[in-house]
Amino acid sequence: MMTELSLNVLDIVENSVSAKAxxxxxxxxxxxxxDTILIEINDNGCGxxxxxxxxxxxxxxxxxxxxxxxxxxxxxxxxxxxxxxSFSINSEVGKGTEIKAVYVLSSIDRFPLGNICLTIHxxxxxHQECDFLYRYCYDDKEFTLDTREFRAILGGIxxxxxxVSAYIKSYLADNTDEVNAGKPVI
Amino acid sequence: xxxxxxxxxxxxxMQGQIGIRREAQCSTRVVVAMGTCGIxxxxxxxxxxxxxxxxEKKVAGVAVVQTGCIDLCQYEPVVEVFADGKEKVTYVNMTxxxxxxxxxxxxxxxxxxxxxxxxxxxx
Lengths: 186, 123
Fold this sequence. Notes:
Distance between the termini of chain A: 18 Å
Order of helices and strands of chain A: HEEHHEEHEEHH
Oligomer: heterodimer
Strand order of the largest sheet of chain B: 2-1-3-4
Shape of chain A: globular
Number of helices of chain A: 6
Largest sheet of chain A: 6 strands, mixed
Distance between the termini of chain B: 53 Å
Strand order of the largest sheet of chain A: 3-4-2-1-5-6
Structural class of chain B: alpha+beta
Radius of gyration of chain B: 16 Å
Number of domains of chain B: 1
CATH topology of chain B: Glutaredoxin
Number of strands of chain B: 4
Largest sheet of chain B: 4 strands, mixed
CATH architecture of chain B: 3-Layer(aba) Sandwich
Largest interface: A-B, 42 and 33 residues
CATH superfamily of chain B: Glutaredoxin
């Protein structure tokens, strides 16, 4: 199992990148009143046929030929369901994949969200061929990061240019701190 | 909330510098395995440590990139170093601290950190 939900997010989004997605949206929504954390990941990658989709939560199924286990999606599903939450995955060939995991916020079996800023920063820098829309919401406060907006401002300057990388890192950290201000760590 | 004006200022400072994938100009590629096994074992922190150290120490000609599972799951986190004209070096059971040492000794100093290699671990 992953020890942080942000590691599950990283792992699942890597699948989206492998599926040749050019646009990936990641949404984290914590709601103390509903006692939930909702994580949604949508991509416009190659998608999966219904036969493949049925097997994707089976740890002994993978599309890779180098080994015969695929643990990313089963780990994500298990991490949500063990809290009393739920997991769903929908996919369509040529359109993309949508994954939704709901966690019971107060469950003792829920792993912490962990360093989601590092996950998002790494995804943006390592996959500059993709655009990301990241939304982080905690009760009544939220912020978004849209790499299409960043790209429009930067012109041809790359995200892994030291100054830009540092800006993205502090954009994520500062805005996350502001959204989290005065609330318990999730 | 952090504003986009700062990003605009970076753009203005760097005006005229067109983005060129530095990876193509690099003679050394440092590849971090980021499959499920790698991520579960700590590869995210290793990748971050390598990227930061290469920037901070201004190591020229080195690109830090990632790949998926390379079938060495029991040795994760795994880092491979490909340098032009040299044999591939595979570092295993990596940590951010070991990654910093590899940057210092191998990527800057040119000396392979033998004790962290697959060859040493497999003995």
